[in-house]
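User: Now give one protein:

AI:
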Amino acid sequence: MNEERPKDRLTDLLDDDTPETRPIGKKRRRSNGAANNDEADGGGWQKKLSLSFDKNKDVDKDDDKDVDKGDDDDDDDDKERGIFTSIFTKKKKEPKTLTEPPAYIQKLPNTFYRMDKKNRGHFIIINNKTFQKRIKNNEYQTPGLRTGTDRDRDMMKTMFKELGYSVDVHNDVTTAKMHDIFLKCSQKDHTDASAFGCCILSHGEEGGIIVTKDHEVQLNELSDYFTKSESLAGKPKMFFVQACRGKAYTEGLSSDVVDGPGADGDDGKDEVDGGNGIIVPCQADFLYAYSGVPGYLSWRNDQQGSWFIQSVVEVFRQHAHEMDVVRMLTRVNMKVSSKKSNTPLQQESHGKMQIGSIVSQLRKELYLDPPNGKMDLASPLKF
């Protein structure tokens, strides 16, 4: 018996296009004998196949007789015609209820991460907007004010609450506090959680450096805390990072192939954002979604928020009920790559572009499975 595909997962395989076939020749009546032992009694498609042929039998020329002849007559009828009989039957599906677990949990447990906990998990948001003066390269430096970041924070907070996560927000965090937040979270009992996630909004530098309120921290120092969490072993751990990863601008490259929209026309000025009983590898099940690629800057609009977070929220709200996270992040890259910076008073940075980076150490496909079904595309911000 073929296994039923999870229709709410594989959108490109929603319907099996194999046509339902009818038996060739005269329809035969079913009897109560052994000929009916292949009758479908479960979900999905069932197939019966029989082949028999006997050249020594005379063909019954009376095609108008439609009498229940019993099992022997039925078998003779098939032999006289010497045909393949292929019958497809489809069981009527019961209406899906809100308490019914997703189809992939029932059918493909080794392919998808389970998202069946009422509390999906813990989600941390680090939002660094203002910074203290610090000494760097023997000079006093003060990273610039990150206007627009509060909108990123609020959009991510609202969306992940709707996705079933317990969200903690921390503003203007020092290096010591950052370590303390991630260490304590990694030491919690996540047995009743399906996943962990965080979003870091800050300035950044090349080499995975995240700028804190008073200094800086390496991203891998924070994520490494979760490699020791036994209650998160085998569960997905998501890191969304809106920060620069270098000082270079991303230029545009003309192409003869048009595969997406043109430049985005956001209002406002764009600014550079720089400055569970299983044994798995300890580095498995991590997903890192970066706003940019190593060595390059990331952009943030002073009114609308960063290009990356805007796109994450828009794409996730539209597709989280039907599409896995890596596929959604690819859509995010497409949206981000269609934008151009709007800094007319600074020609050096005007008209520049950006592309995100997805680093996946996931072992399975990750679906966020909104608890209440398809999300509103433009949900009001909740503070």
Residues 1-70, 79-90, 255-265 have pLDDT under 50 and may be disordered. The longest strand covers residues 45-51.
